[in-house]
Amino acid sequence: MLCDRCHKRDAKVLYTEIINGLKKEQHLCEECAADYTSFQMEKPLLNSDLTLGGLLSTLLENYYTAGATKGAGTIKPDMICHRCKTSYQEFLRNGRFGCADCYRSFGNELGKTFKGIQGAEMHTGKRPKGLVTEVDRVMKGLSEIEKLSLKLQEAIEKEEFEEAARLRDLIKEMKKEESSNA
Amino acid sequence: MLKWYEINGPESDVVISSRIRLARNLEQYLFSAKLDDETAKAMVDEVKEITPTLSQAGTRKFYACNISTLNDIDKTAMVERHIVSPLLAEKDQPTGLILSEDETISIMINEEDHIRIQAIVGGMNLEEAYEEAEKIDDIAYEKLHFAYDEKYGYLTSCPTNAGTGLRASCMVFLPALSSARLIHKLMEEVAKYGMTIRGIYGEGTKSLGSIYQISNQKTLGSSEREIIDSLNRIVQQVVKQERKRREYMLSVNSEEIEDQVYRSYGILKFARQISSDDAMTLLSQLKFGADSGVIKFDRAFNIHKLMMGVQPGSLQWSLGKNVGSLTRDQSRAEYIRKELPTII
User: Structural domain boundaries of chain A?
Assistant: First the structure.
Protein backbone atom coordinates (compact mmCIF):
# COMPACT_ATOMS: atom_id res chain seq x y z
CA MET A 1 0.00 0.00 0.00
CA LEU A 2 1.28 3.46 -0.88
CA CYS A 3 1.39 6.40 1.49
CA ASP A 4 -1.82 8.49 1.55
CA ARG A 5 0.11 11.75 1.57
CA CYS A 6 3.01 11.43 -0.86
CA HIS A 7 1.61 8.47 -2.88
CA LYS A 8 5.20 7.41 -3.55
CA ARG A 9 6.63 5.37 -0.69
CA ASP A 10 5.25 2.30 1.06
CA ALA A 11 2.93 3.09 3.96
CA LYS A 12 4.25 1.73 7.25
CA VAL A 13 2.22 3.64 9.84
CA LEU A 14 -1.52 3.68 10.43
CA TYR A 15 -2.27 7.12 11.86
CA THR A 16 -5.67 7.68 13.47
CA GLU A 17 -6.74 11.22 14.20
CA ILE A 18 -9.87 12.22 16.09
CA ILE A 19 -10.70 15.89 15.76
CA ASN A 20 -14.00 17.13 17.22
CA GLY A 21 -15.30 13.59 17.30
CA LEU A 22 -14.46 13.06 13.64
CA LYS A 23 -12.27 10.02 13.09
CA LYS A 24 -9.79 10.09 10.25
CA GLU A 25 -7.47 7.23 9.37
CA GLN A 26 -4.38 7.62 7.22
CA HIS A 27 -1.75 5.19 6.01
CA LEU A 28 1.59 6.96 6.00
CA CYS A 29 5.19 6.21 5.10
CA GLU A 30 7.97 6.80 7.64
CA GLU A 31 8.99 10.13 6.14
CA CYS A 32 5.48 11.59 5.98
CA ALA A 33 4.70 10.22 9.44
CA ALA A 34 7.74 11.97 10.85
CA ASP A 35 6.75 15.12 9.03
CA TYR A 36 3.06 15.17 9.73
CA THR A 37 2.81 13.56 13.15
CA SER A 38 4.93 13.32 16.27
CA PHE A 39 5.64 9.74 15.33
CA GLN A 40 9.20 8.54 15.04
CA MET A 41 10.42 5.17 13.81
CA GLU A 42 12.99 3.97 16.25
CA LYS A 43 15.28 1.02 16.20
CA PRO A 44 15.52 -0.29 19.74
CA LEU A 45 19.22 -0.90 20.10
CA LEU A 46 20.95 0.57 17.15
CA ASN A 47 20.39 4.23 16.57
CA SER A 48 22.87 4.70 13.79
CA ASP A 49 22.58 8.48 13.47
CA LEU A 50 23.81 8.94 16.98
CA THR A 51 26.84 6.72 16.68
CA LEU A 52 30.42 7.78 16.88
CA GLY A 53 30.82 6.97 13.19
CA GLY A 54 28.06 9.44 12.30
CA LEU A 55 29.68 12.14 14.37
CA LEU A 56 33.04 11.26 12.94
CA SER A 57 32.11 11.85 9.33
CA THR A 58 30.87 15.36 10.24
CA LEU A 59 34.11 15.95 12.05
CA LEU A 60 36.19 14.74 9.14
CA GLU A 61 34.23 16.79 6.65
CA ASN A 62 34.50 19.94 8.77
CA TYR A 63 38.17 19.34 9.07
CA TYR A 64 38.51 18.97 5.35
CA THR A 65 36.45 22.04 4.39
CA ALA A 66 38.19 24.17 7.02
CA GLY A 67 41.55 23.25 5.50
CA ALA A 68 40.35 23.87 1.96
CA THR A 69 38.92 27.35 2.58
CA LYS A 70 42.08 28.44 4.31
CA GLY A 71 43.93 27.35 1.23
CA ALA A 72 46.30 25.45 3.45
CA GLY A 73 44.98 22.06 2.42
CA THR A 74 47.01 20.27 -0.20
CA ILE A 75 44.44 17.52 -0.45
CA LYS A 76 44.16 16.17 -3.93
CA PRO A 77 40.48 15.54 -4.44
CA ASP A 78 41.19 12.69 -6.82
CA MET A 79 43.22 10.51 -4.44
CA ILE A 80 41.86 7.02 -5.00
CA CYS A 81 42.97 3.79 -3.36
CA HIS A 82 44.47 1.60 -6.09
CA ARG A 83 43.13 -1.57 -4.50
CA CYS A 84 39.54 -0.96 -3.39
CA LYS A 85 38.89 2.23 -5.42
CA THR A 86 37.73 4.18 -2.37
CA SER A 87 38.35 7.87 -2.97
CA TYR A 88 39.61 10.21 -0.28
CA GLN A 89 36.32 12.12 -0.59
CA GLU A 90 34.39 8.94 0.04
CA PHE A 91 36.52 8.24 3.09
CA LEU A 92 35.82 11.71 4.45
CA ARG A 93 32.12 11.29 3.82
CA ASN A 94 31.70 7.87 5.41
CA GLY A 95 34.51 7.91 7.94
CA ARG A 96 35.47 4.40 6.82
CA PHE A 97 38.47 3.00 4.97
CA GLY A 98 37.83 0.48 2.22
CA CYS A 99 40.89 -1.69 2.77
CA ALA A 100 44.30 -1.81 4.41
CA ASP A 101 45.91 -0.16 1.38
CA CYS A 102 43.81 3.00 1.82
CA TYR A 103 46.13 3.90 4.70
CA ARG A 104 49.04 3.99 2.26
CA SER A 105 47.12 5.44 -0.69
CA PHE A 106 45.90 8.56 1.12
CA GLY A 107 49.46 9.57 1.97
CA ASN A 108 50.47 12.39 4.23
CA GLU A 109 47.03 13.97 4.48
CA LEU A 110 46.01 11.04 6.57
CA GLY A 111 48.57 11.88 9.24
CA LYS A 112 46.86 15.21 9.77
CA THR A 113 43.45 13.57 9.89
CA PHE A 114 44.69 11.16 12.54
CA LYS A 115 46.25 14.00 14.48
CA GLY A 116 42.83 15.67 14.42
CA ILE A 117 40.77 12.76 15.67
CA GLN A 118 43.24 10.70 17.70
CA GLY A 119 45.64 13.43 18.81
CA ALA A 120 48.49 11.29 17.48
CA GLU A 121 49.69 9.82 14.21
CA MET A 122 52.08 7.15 15.34
CA HIS A 123 51.30 3.76 16.84
CA THR A 124 53.36 3.00 19.94
CA GLY A 125 51.60 -0.12 21.17
CA LYS A 126 51.79 -3.82 20.45
CA ARG A 127 53.38 -5.29 17.34
CA PRO A 128 52.30 -8.71 16.18
CA LYS A 129 54.62 -11.35 17.61
CA GLY A 130 57.26 -12.47 15.13
CA LEU A 131 56.44 -9.72 12.62
CA VAL A 132 59.28 -8.92 10.22
CA THR A 133 58.77 -5.55 8.59
CA GLU A 134 60.64 -3.50 6.04
CA VAL A 135 62.25 -1.54 8.87
CA ASP A 136 63.46 -4.77 10.48
CA ARG A 137 65.00 -5.90 7.19
CA VAL A 138 66.76 -2.57 6.71
CA MET A 139 67.96 -2.63 10.31
CA LYS A 140 69.38 -6.09 9.76
CA GLY A 141 71.45 -4.87 6.83
CA LEU A 142 73.00 -2.03 8.81
CA SER A 143 76.54 -2.14 10.15
CA GLU A 144 77.18 -2.10 13.89
CA ILE A 145 78.25 1.54 13.76
CA GLU A 146 75.13 2.57 11.84
CA LYS A 147 72.92 0.84 14.39
CA LEU A 148 74.70 2.61 17.24
CA SER A 149 74.31 5.96 15.46
CA LEU A 150 70.56 5.37 15.31
CA LYS A 151 70.53 4.57 19.00
CA LEU A 152 72.52 7.74 19.67
CA GLN A 153 69.94 9.76 17.75
CA GLU A 154 67.18 8.21 19.80
CA ALA A 155 68.96 8.90 23.08
CA ILE A 156 69.40 12.56 22.14
CA GLU A 157 65.73 12.82 21.22
CA LYS A 158 64.76 11.35 24.56
CA GLU A 159 67.22 13.70 26.28
CA GLU A 160 69.09 10.78 27.81
CA PHE A 161 72.40 12.57 27.61
CA GLU A 162 74.49 10.18 29.70
CA GLU A 163 73.51 7.31 27.44
CA ALA A 164 74.14 9.53 24.42
CA ALA A 165 77.65 10.37 25.61
CA ARG A 166 78.38 6.70 26.19
CA LEU A 167 77.19 5.81 22.69
CA ARG A 168 79.14 8.70 21.14
CA ASP A 169 82.36 7.48 22.73
CA LEU A 170 81.65 3.92 21.69
CA ILE A 171 81.10 4.97 18.08
CA LYS A 172 84.26 7.07 18.10
CA GLU A 173 86.27 4.12 19.35
CA MET A 174 84.80 1.74 16.81
CA LYS A 175 85.52 4.16 13.98
CA LYS A 176 89.09 4.53 15.16
CA GLU A 177 89.49 0.77 15.24
CA GLU A 178 87.99 0.46 11.79
CA SER A 179 90.37 3.00 10.25
CA SER A 180 93.39 1.42 11.95
CA ASN A 181 92.31 -1.98 10.62
CA ALA A 182 92.03 -0.55 7.16
CA MET B 1 32.42 -23.66 34.48
CA LEU B 2 30.93 -20.48 35.94
CA LYS B 3 30.11 -17.63 33.59
CA TRP B 4 31.61 -14.21 34.20
CA TYR B 5 28.33 -12.74 35.38
CA GLU B 6 27.95 -15.47 37.97
CA ILE B 7 31.15 -14.41 39.75
CA ASN B 8 31.38 -11.29 41.88
CA GLY B 9 34.77 -9.78 41.02
CA PRO B 10 36.75 -7.00 42.74
CA GLU B 11 34.84 -3.75 43.55
CA SER B 12 31.63 -5.43 42.44
CA ASP B 13 29.48 -2.97 44.39
CA VAL B 14 30.27 -0.47 41.63
CA VAL B 15 32.10 -2.25 38.81
CA ILE B 16 30.01 -5.01 37.29
CA SER B 17 32.45 -6.12 34.63
CA SER B 18 35.63 -5.23 32.74
CA ARG B 19 35.85 -5.72 29.01
CA ILE B 20 38.60 -5.59 26.41
CA ARG B 21 37.98 -5.46 22.69
CA LEU B 22 40.65 -5.79 20.02
CA ALA B 23 39.87 -4.91 16.40
CA ARG B 24 41.81 -6.80 13.73
CA ASN B 25 41.54 -7.14 9.95
CA LEU B 26 42.95 -9.62 7.48
CA GLU B 27 45.36 -8.10 4.98
CA GLN B 28 44.16 -10.09 1.97
CA TYR B 29 40.46 -9.10 2.17
CA LEU B 30 38.90 -5.68 1.61
CA PHE B 31 37.34 -4.22 4.73
CA SER B 32 33.86 -5.36 5.68
CA ALA B 33 31.86 -2.58 3.97
CA LYS B 34 33.52 -3.34 0.62
CA LEU B 35 33.12 -7.12 0.71
CA ASP B 36 30.56 -8.89 -1.46
CA ASP B 37 28.61 -11.70 0.20
CA GLU B 38 30.63 -14.46 -1.39
CA THR B 39 34.00 -13.09 -0.29
CA ALA B 40 32.59 -12.24 3.11
CA LYS B 41 31.58 -15.87 3.54
CA ALA B 42 35.05 -17.05 2.54
CA MET B 43 36.59 -14.69 5.10
CA VAL B 44 34.21 -15.80 7.86
CA ASP B 45 35.00 -19.45 7.09
CA GLU B 46 38.73 -18.81 7.12
CA VAL B 47 38.58 -17.16 10.54
CA LYS B 48 36.32 -19.87 11.95
CA GLU B 49 38.99 -22.44 11.16
CA ILE B 50 41.07 -21.26 14.12
CA THR B 51 38.43 -22.59 16.56
CA PRO B 52 40.06 -25.99 17.24
CA THR B 53 43.47 -24.33 17.72
CA LEU B 54 41.95 -22.01 20.33
CA SER B 55 40.42 -24.95 22.21
CA GLN B 56 43.72 -26.83 22.18
CA ALA B 57 45.77 -23.87 23.34
CA GLY B 58 43.83 -23.08 26.50
CA THR B 59 41.67 -24.53 29.20
CA ARG B 60 38.43 -23.42 27.60
CA LYS B 61 36.39 -24.99 24.87
CA PHE B 62 35.40 -22.79 21.94
CA TYR B 63 32.40 -23.09 19.64
CA ALA B 64 31.81 -21.45 16.28
CA CYS B 65 28.51 -20.53 14.65
CA ASN B 66 26.94 -18.40 11.93
CA ILE B 67 25.02 -15.46 13.33
CA SER B 68 22.86 -15.14 10.23
CA THR B 69 21.40 -18.62 10.79
CA LEU B 70 20.27 -17.88 14.36
CA ASN B 71 16.72 -16.79 15.10
CA ASP B 72 15.85 -13.35 16.48
CA ILE B 73 15.44 -14.51 20.08
CA ASP B 74 18.92 -16.04 20.16
CA LYS B 75 20.39 -12.90 18.63
CA THR B 76 18.66 -10.55 21.07
CA ALA B 77 19.65 -12.73 24.04
CA MET B 78 23.29 -12.62 22.85
CA VAL B 79 23.20 -8.84 22.55
CA GLU B 80 21.72 -8.54 26.03
CA ARG B 81 24.48 -10.72 27.44
CA HIS B 82 27.12 -8.65 25.63
CA ILE B 83 28.31 -11.64 23.61
CA VAL B 84 27.72 -9.87 20.31
CA SER B 85 27.18 -6.23 19.41
CA PRO B 86 23.84 -4.92 18.13
CA LEU B 87 25.60 -4.24 14.81
CA LEU B 88 26.65 -7.86 14.34
CA ALA B 89 23.18 -9.14 15.25
CA GLU B 90 21.53 -6.92 12.65
CA LYS B 91 23.98 -7.30 9.80
CA ASP B 92 22.70 -8.82 6.56
CA GLN B 93 26.11 -9.98 5.29
CA PRO B 94 27.53 -13.37 6.32
CA THR B 95 28.86 -13.05 9.86
CA GLY B 96 30.26 -15.47 12.39
CA LEU B 97 30.98 -15.95 16.04
CA ILE B 98 33.49 -17.96 18.03
CA LEU B 99 32.49 -18.21 21.67
CA SER B 100 34.14 -19.78 24.70
CA GLU B 101 31.89 -22.03 26.78
CA ASP B 102 32.04 -19.68 29.79
CA GLU B 103 31.11 -16.69 27.56
CA THR B 104 34.29 -14.88 28.69
CA ILE B 105 35.70 -14.68 25.20
CA SER B 106 33.81 -13.98 22.04
CA ILE B 107 35.24 -13.37 18.62
CA MET B 108 32.90 -11.52 16.31
CA ILE B 109 33.63 -12.14 12.64
CA ASN B 110 32.76 -9.58 9.98
CA GLU B 111 31.38 -6.94 12.32
CA GLU B 112 32.70 -3.47 11.43
CA ASP B 113 36.13 -5.08 11.27
CA HIS B 114 36.90 -8.62 10.13
CA ILE B 115 37.69 -9.70 13.67
CA ARG B 116 36.67 -8.29 17.02
CA ILE B 117 38.18 -10.19 19.93
CA GLN B 118 36.32 -9.54 23.14
CA ALA B 119 37.07 -10.67 26.69
CA ILE B 120 34.79 -9.93 29.65
CA VAL B 121 35.56 -10.67 33.28
CA GLY B 122 33.50 -9.87 36.39
CA GLY B 123 34.33 -6.85 38.55
CA MET B 124 37.22 -4.45 38.17
CA ASN B 125 39.87 -6.45 36.39
CA LEU B 126 40.97 -4.96 33.08
CA GLU B 127 44.40 -6.61 33.33
CA GLU B 128 42.97 -10.11 33.33
CA ALA B 129 40.57 -9.27 30.51
CA TYR B 130 43.47 -7.91 28.46
CA GLU B 131 45.60 -10.97 29.12
CA GLU B 132 42.79 -13.20 27.89
CA ALA B 133 42.22 -11.14 24.75
CA GLU B 134 45.92 -10.90 23.98
CA LYS B 135 46.34 -14.67 24.22
CA ILE B 136 43.65 -15.08 21.56
CA ASP B 137 45.25 -12.32 19.46
CA ASP B 138 48.62 -14.10 19.48
CA ILE B 139 47.17 -17.50 18.61
CA ALA B 140 45.03 -16.02 15.84
CA TYR B 141 48.04 -14.18 14.38
CA GLU B 142 49.88 -17.47 13.89
CA LYS B 143 47.10 -18.60 11.54
CA LEU B 144 45.81 -15.34 10.05
CA HIS B 145 47.63 -12.47 8.40
CA PHE B 146 46.57 -9.27 10.18
CA ALA B 147 46.76 -5.90 8.46
CA TYR B 148 49.46 -4.04 10.37
CA ASP B 149 51.44 -0.93 9.57
CA GLU B 150 54.55 0.37 11.32
CA LYS B 151 53.09 3.85 11.48
CA TYR B 152 49.38 3.31 12.08
CA GLY B 153 49.56 -0.01 13.92
CA TYR B 154 46.64 -2.39 13.46
CA LEU B 155 44.62 -1.10 10.52
CA THR B 156 40.90 -0.85 11.07
CA SER B 157 37.89 0.11 9.01
CA CYS B 158 37.19 3.21 11.10
CA PRO B 159 40.06 5.60 11.92
CA THR B 160 38.82 5.86 15.52
CA ASN B 161 39.99 2.28 16.15
CA ALA B 162 43.35 2.24 14.37
CA GLY B 163 46.62 1.73 16.22
CA THR B 164 46.05 -0.60 19.13
CA GLY B 165 42.50 -1.46 18.01
CA LEU B 166 41.86 -1.56 21.74
CA ARG B 167 38.67 -0.53 23.43
CA ALA B 168 38.83 -1.09 27.17
CA SER B 169 35.65 -0.57 29.13
CA CYS B 170 34.17 -1.04 32.56
CA MET B 171 30.49 -1.53 33.17
CA VAL B 172 29.68 0.51 36.25
CA PHE B 173 26.65 0.70 38.53
CA LEU B 174 26.09 4.32 39.58
CA PRO B 175 22.75 4.62 41.40
CA ALA B 176 23.90 7.35 43.81
CA LEU B 177 25.63 9.52 41.23
CA SER B 178 22.76 9.20 38.78
CA SER B 179 20.04 9.94 41.35
CA ALA B 180 22.05 13.04 42.34
CA ARG B 181 22.04 13.94 38.61
CA LEU B 182 25.80 13.98 38.52
CA ILE B 183 26.29 11.73 35.47
CA HIS B 184 26.41 14.66 33.10
CA LYS B 185 29.12 16.34 35.13
CA LEU B 186 30.96 13.06 35.30
CA MET B 187 30.77 12.73 31.50
CA GLU B 188 32.46 16.10 31.07
CA GLU B 189 35.08 15.23 33.66
CA VAL B 190 35.87 11.87 32.11
CA ALA B 191 36.02 13.36 28.59
CA LYS B 192 38.96 15.53 29.65
CA TYR B 193 41.01 12.36 30.03
CA GLY B 194 40.00 10.99 26.65
CA MET B 195 37.42 8.60 28.13
CA THR B 196 33.70 8.40 27.51
CA ILE B 197 30.58 7.28 29.41
CA ARG B 198 27.78 5.59 27.51
CA GLY B 199 24.63 3.53 28.01
CA ILE B 200 24.66 -0.13 28.92
CA TYR B 201 24.89 -1.56 25.40
CA GLY B 202 27.47 0.90 24.14
CA GLU B 203 27.31 3.40 21.34
CA GLY B 204 23.99 5.26 21.07
CA THR B 205 22.11 3.23 23.67
CA LYS B 206 20.33 4.42 26.78
CA SER B 207 21.18 3.64 30.35
CA LEU B 208 19.10 1.02 32.15
CA GLY B 209 19.03 0.59 35.91
CA SER B 210 21.83 3.15 36.50
CA ILE B 211 24.32 1.02 34.58
CA TYR B 212 26.87 2.80 32.39
CA GLN B 213 29.99 1.97 30.40
CA ILE B 214 33.22 3.92 30.75
CA SER B 215 35.75 3.39 27.98
CA ASN B 216 38.78 4.87 26.24
CA GLN B 217 38.17 6.94 23.14
CA LYS B 218 41.61 7.12 21.58
CA THR B 219 43.36 4.06 20.26
CA LEU B 220 46.44 5.54 18.55
CA GLY B 221 49.53 7.03 20.13
CA SER B 222 49.38 5.25 23.50
CA SER B 223 50.35 1.68 24.26
CA GLU B 224 47.84 -0.91 25.45
CA ARG B 225 49.35 -0.69 28.94
CA GLU B 226 48.97 3.10 29.05
CA ILE B 227 45.36 2.98 27.87
CA ILE B 228 44.43 0.36 30.46
CA ASP B 229 46.29 2.17 33.25
CA SER B 230 44.56 5.45 32.59
CA LEU B 231 41.12 3.83 32.36
CA ASN B 232 41.88 2.06 35.62
CA ARG B 233 42.70 5.35 37.30
CA ILE B 234 39.52 7.00 36.02
CA VAL B 235 37.29 4.11 37.05
CA GLN B 236 38.89 3.99 40.50
CA GLN B 237 38.02 7.67 40.85
CA VAL B 238 34.44 7.02 39.77
CA VAL B 239 34.21 4.15 42.27
CA LYS B 240 35.43 6.47 45.03
CA GLN B 241 32.96 9.20 44.09
CA GLU B 242 30.03 6.79 43.82
CA ARG B 243 30.83 5.27 47.23
CA LYS B 244 31.16 8.69 48.80
CA ARG B 245 27.81 9.72 47.35
CA ARG B 246 26.19 6.50 48.57
CA GLU B 247 27.52 7.11 52.08
CA TYR B 248 26.18 10.64 51.99
CA MET B 249 22.77 9.50 50.77
CA LEU B 250 22.59 6.90 53.50
CA SER B 251 23.62 9.37 56.17
CA VAL B 252 20.93 11.91 55.31
CA ASN B 253 18.19 9.68 53.97
CA SER B 254 18.69 6.27 55.49
CA GLU B 255 15.05 5.70 56.47
CA GLU B 256 13.71 6.64 53.07
CA ILE B 257 16.31 4.52 51.31
CA GLU B 258 15.54 1.56 53.54
CA ASP B 259 11.84 1.98 52.78
CA GLN B 260 12.53 2.18 49.06
CA VAL B 261 14.77 -0.89 49.02
CA TYR B 262 12.21 -2.98 50.92
CA ARG B 263 9.39 -1.73 48.70
CA SER B 264 11.41 -2.75 45.64
CA TYR B 265 11.93 -6.17 47.16
CA GLY B 266 8.21 -6.42 47.88
CA ILE B 267 7.21 -5.64 44.31
CA LEU B 268 9.83 -7.95 42.84
CA LYS B 269 8.85 -10.76 45.20
CA PHE B 270 5.08 -10.51 44.78
CA ALA B 271 4.29 -8.86 41.45
CA ARG B 272 2.39 -11.01 38.95
CA GLN B 273 3.51 -9.07 35.86
CA ILE B 274 6.43 -6.76 35.40
CA SER B 275 8.05 -4.97 32.44
CA SER B 276 11.79 -5.23 31.85
CA ASP B 277 12.40 -1.52 32.48
CA ASP B 278 10.55 -1.72 35.80
CA ALA B 279 12.40 -4.87 36.74
CA MET B 280 15.74 -3.20 35.97
CA THR B 281 14.91 -0.14 38.07
CA LEU B 282 13.77 -2.24 41.03
CA LEU B 283 16.67 -4.66 40.78
CA SER B 284 19.06 -1.75 40.71
CA GLN B 285 17.46 -0.43 43.93
CA LEU B 286 17.84 -3.88 45.43
CA LYS B 287 21.49 -4.11 44.42
CA PHE B 288 22.12 -0.74 46.01
CA GLY B 289 20.39 -1.92 49.20
CA ALA B 290 22.29 -5.21 49.29
CA ASP B 291 25.70 -3.62 48.58
CA SER B 292 25.23 -1.04 51.32
CA GLY B 293 23.98 -3.56 53.84
CA VAL B 294 20.47 -2.06 54.11
CA ILE B 295 18.97 -5.42 53.20
CA LYS B 296 20.39 -8.89 53.86
CA PHE B 297 19.57 -12.21 52.21
CA ASP B 298 19.74 -15.79 53.41
CA ARG B 299 22.09 -16.72 50.58
CA ALA B 300 24.58 -15.03 48.26
CA PHE B 301 23.07 -14.19 44.92
CA ASN B 302 24.15 -12.24 41.89
CA ILE B 303 21.77 -9.43 40.98
CA HIS B 304 23.54 -8.80 37.71
CA LYS B 305 22.75 -12.30 36.52
CA LEU B 306 19.09 -11.55 37.27
CA MET B 307 19.35 -8.22 35.45
CA MET B 308 20.36 -10.09 32.32
CA GLY B 309 17.80 -12.81 32.83
CA VAL B 310 14.87 -10.34 32.82
CA GLN B 311 15.75 -8.83 29.43
CA PRO B 312 13.17 -9.68 26.74
CA GLY B 313 15.54 -11.78 24.62
CA SER B 314 17.06 -13.78 27.47
CA LEU B 315 13.64 -14.40 28.98
CA GLN B 316 12.18 -15.74 25.73
CA TRP B 317 15.33 -17.69 25.17
CA SER B 318 14.87 -19.53 28.47
CA LEU B 319 11.17 -19.98 27.66
CA GLY B 320 12.26 -21.43 24.35
CA LYS B 321 9.74 -19.46 22.32
CA ASN B 322 8.61 -16.06 21.15
CA VAL B 323 5.78 -14.74 23.32
CA GLY B 324 3.72 -11.54 23.49
CA SER B 325 4.48 -8.77 25.96
CA LEU B 326 1.78 -9.76 28.50
CA THR B 327 2.98 -13.37 28.73
CA ARG B 328 6.52 -12.02 28.87
CA ASP B 329 5.69 -9.73 31.79
CA GLN B 330 4.04 -12.63 33.58
CA SER B 331 6.90 -15.06 33.09
CA ARG B 332 9.38 -12.35 34.01
CA ALA B 333 7.58 -11.86 37.34
CA GLU B 334 7.55 -15.62 37.87
CA TYR B 335 11.25 -15.91 37.06
CA ILE B 336 12.16 -13.14 39.53
CA ARG B 337 9.98 -14.67 42.28
CA LYS B 338 11.77 -17.94 41.83
CA GLU B 339 15.28 -16.47 41.81
CA LEU B 340 14.97 -13.92 44.64
CA PRO B 341 16.39 -15.10 47.97
CA THR B 342 14.60 -14.63 51.30
CA ILE B 343 15.32 -11.65 53.52
CA ILE B 344 16.89 -12.27 56.91
Answer: 1-49, 51-121, 140-181
